[in-house]
Amino acid sequence: MVVLHMIPNLDKLKIKELNNLQTQAADLISNNDNLVILAPTGSGKTIAFLLPLLKSVDLHNTKYTQSLILVPTRELALQIENVLRQLQTGFKITCCYGGHKREIEENNLIEPPAILIATPGRLNDHLRRKNADISKISFLVIDEFDKMLELGFREELETITNQIPASNLKRILTSATSDEIPEFLNMHDVRTLNLLSEENKDKISIRIIASDQKDKLESLFELLCFTGNTSSIVFCNHRESVERISNFLRDKSLMNVFYHGGMEQRDREVALCKFRNGSSDTLITTDLASRGLDISNIRNIIHYHIPQDEATFTHRNGRTARMHNTGIVYLILSEDEKVPDYIENAEDFKLPQTLSIPEKPKWITLFIDAGKKDKINKIDIVGFLSNKANLKKDDIGLIEVKDYFSFAAIRKSKATHALEAVKNEKMKNKKIRISAAK
User: Fold this and answer.
1) Is the domain of 262 the same as that of 310?
2) Which residues of the chain have a pLDDT value below 50?
3) Are residues 256 and 392 in the same domain?
4) Among candidate residues 160, 194, 228, the one where a domain is terminated
5) Domain assignment of residue 320, given as a range
6) Which of 92, 237, 351, 432 gets the most CB atoms within 10 Å of its CB?
7) Distance between CA atoms of residues 238 and 317, nearest Å
């Protein structure tokens, strides 16, 4: 292990020393131009490629973009951007993804960023409009490249990579499941860092719940009553099922949020924020949430629908048992469903006969209609809530600041008073609208 006192601002990520993956990756990236990193989700892959990437950037060169990070989803793009912002690198960073206003990105690209984070579709759009120039990229990361191909981004990836000269280029590919490199990348002399061991399996218990109903709704409800106020993700195969299940649980007075690709970006961010900050202990979702979400301490993964394949099963389960934690995986099966062959060491599990609905979460999420573009930061929000709403430090939970709005978790018992107290108050001399996030 390497102590990180010489690497500025990593303490902001609560990292005291690099793990095995990160130290090995740093050495391999410095000595090789082509590297594939295979490691479980939650193992620190982002830091593993970001540290060498940052070391390669020339702070004094502002004429062109030097590094490109391609990701399959907007959530992963935002997660990586957030890590870079916390590191306070001094480099210009621009994040481009679908669902974000293209005009804002165009303005951010006028002065080339040192580091560009993008989804393939949106980056291709900017390249066609000549908003971005990637012809001088020297460091390319394709994060979760197997997911890129699974989502149908092969053509977009090929178009992008064909515009990047292969000479003097470092290429890093990451995955949690596959090392099959696409031919169009023309990668030679590839080194592979494979940490997909059996260790993570030992941290996960797999339990089978037999349901006597075909739709399994009552069985899911009973299971969530059993898991109580521990953090749980319920995976479904279809968007329609996600909302149907969410509504059913709400009718049963069980608080939850749902998340899928058909939602507006802001609604997706509200749902994830509520789940992250403890305003909801249960997230109902599609496989969109199986990758790229940085949410710690998820205790339970519940497969309401059988995963379509082993890779999907692996990625869903990767949301729990992260770092040094353990987790429990539940698979709910109706009478006509069987345990897939790729699932091993699963045990039958019977729920207790007596169950009760979990307590309501003790936190509520506030929506604040101001963000980074209004020069608002977390310290401003904490000060505002403390001074104007008389909230103590322990009354304020996780705060997230986006471009044009922010979220703040506060004690639900203090919410009514707080909202009334800040109704006509100003933050940084601007009247701010604050309400309970819907």
Assistant:
1) yes
2) 1-6, 198
3) no
4) 194
5) 200-348
6) 432
7) 18
Both 51 and 112 in one domain: the answer is yes
**How far apart, in whole angstroms, are the C-alpha atoms of residue 45 and residue 427?**
38
Q: What pLDDT score was predicted for residue 213?
A: 86
In a domain, 212, yes or no: yes
| Bridge partners (DSSP) listed for residue 208 | 331, 348
Same domain, 270 and 373: no
Number of domains in the chain: 3
| Euclidean distance between CA atoms 402 and 409, whole angstroms | 15
**CA–CA separation, 274 and 71 (whole Å):** 24
86 and 226 in a common domain: no
CA 352 to chain centre: 34
Partner residues linked to 234 by β-bridges: 284, 302
For residues 370 and 308, membership in a common domain is answered with: no
The pLDDT value given to residue 322 = 67
* 47 token code pair: 């830091």
Three-state DSSP class for 116?
strand
Distance of alpha carbon 89 from alpha carbon 83, whole angstroms: 10
Beta strands at 406-411 and 363-368: parallel, antiparallel or unpaired: antiparallel
User: Which residue in this structure is represented by tokens 């973009």?
Assistant: 65
Q: Are residues 160 and 281 in the same domain?
A: no
Q: Where are the alpha helices (DSSP H) in 195-302?
A: 199-202, 217-227, 239-251, 265-277
Last residue of a domain, one of 316, 348, 380: 348
Q: Tell me, yes or no, whether 142 lies in a domain.
A: yes
pLDDT of residue 244: 97
- In 80-103, which positions are buried (b, 16+ CB within 10 angstroms) versus exposed (e)? bbeebeebebebebbbbbeebeee
Tokens representing residue 193 in the block: 């860092």
Identify whether residues 78 and 115 lie together within a single domain: yes
Residue type, 221: F
Q: Decide if 42 contacts 196 (C-beta within 8 A).
A: no
* SS3 assignment, position 213: coil
- Residue 66: other Cβ atoms inside 10 A: 22
**Whole-number pLDDT of residue 179:** 67
Rounded to whole angstroms, how far apart are CA atoms 61 and 70? 22
Q: Across-strand partners of 115? A: 67, 93
Report the alpha-carbon distance of residue 316 to residue 273 in Å, rounded: 19
In a domain, 407, yes or no: yes
Judge whether 353 lies within some domain: no
